[in-house]
Amino acid sequence: MEIGKIHNENCLSTMGNMPNNYINFIITSPPYDDIRNYNGYRFEFEKIAKELYRVLKEGGVIIWVVGDSTINGSESGTSFQQALYFKEIGFRLHDTMIYYKNNPMPQTGNRYHQHFEYMFALSKGSPKTFNPITEPTKYKGLANMKNRGQSGSLDYEKVERTKEKKVGNVFFYSIGGGISTKDKAAYNHPAIFPEKLVADQISTWTNEEDLVYDPFMGSGTTAKISHLLNRKWIGSEISQEYVDIANKRLNMYRTNNLFT
User: Fold this and answer.
1) Which residues are within 8 A (CB) of 236 and not within 5 positions of it... i.e. 6 or more apart?
2) End-to-end CA distance of the chain
3) Closest CA to 216 of 236, 198, 234
4) pLDDT single digits (tens) 150-209
5) Is there a contact between 77 and 99 (Cβ–Cβ < 8 Å)?
6) Would the N or C end of the chain have less CB density within 10 A of its end CB?
7) Domains and CATH numbers, the chain
8) What's the pLDDT at 127?
9) Is there a contact between 242 and 189 (Cβ–Cβ < 8 Å)?
């Protein structure tokens, strides 16, 4: 199995060449519900889900980014159906996270603008790696004694201290031209992962030198971020058009010696 390559084929073919328990981490956004045109390729979800389980290492995690289309006035519920099927075949639904779009495309009709997609964190057993993203938080604590109060009791000064806490499981990203990525070549693809989203999840669930797989590589974001974070990677992409877009994007970094 060649690492550091986007394999121009159905992901079932790529995974068919992988041994059991091979991949540390998987992140992808599948072509769900025909929301986007993926050149007419068929999405065989159940077969793919079973292969993902087979090739993922024990303790590995999948981040499955998915939403629902609206058909005849009703949301499809595909996201929940897929999450429950993953559980049925052995995955744990470790966390249901939200990818919140700060600036989504406006929608018409009698419903509010759709601001989010689900990011299901699916684990094979208990996750082996967790490097949480943190943020500073302030709390009030007691400092050293200042003096005795009028009653003779000890008088302590209350001060603010700073420490770190885990962020919540709703992740906020701005999207669109020049925001999701600075790579102009990527925008020839209809659906681009925000680079920050991929970086946050790879950093959380993997360590350096771990092997990352994206079965729907699309514009190549997972490949780019994996390399920049010193992770090994493999990709599948059935569309030659999209492979060309991703490779053009990656070659820009190779040309500038940002990739070795």
Assistant:
1) 6, 7, 9, 10, 11, 13, 14, 15, 213, 214, 215, 216, 217
2) 20
3) 236
4) 555 555 566 667 788 999 999 999 877 666 665 565 555 556 788 999 999 999 999 999
5) no
6) C
7) 6-131+168-255 (3.40.50.150), 133-166 (no CATH)
8) 98
9) yes
